[in-house]
Fold this protein.
Amino acid sequence: MKTAVVATVLLIVTIAAITSTEPEFDDASNSVSTYPLRCGPRFGQCAKGLCCGLNNECGSSLAHCNVSLGCKIKWGNCF
């Protein structure tokens, strides 16, 4: 029982530490993401020439760049 509680607490602390280190941008930000493969309100824009896909990931594939597949034009290129 104690092992499960300790494991749960460690998991919560780890998740909190990871999420607290991510920069936050407001929706008006035009900053390029400091996380090269992440984009969106919390990360900023993709590097020049990349698209911001449905899951806030930068890339150049059809899945990243097609508007009908969730490309976010505010955070990168889309078609």
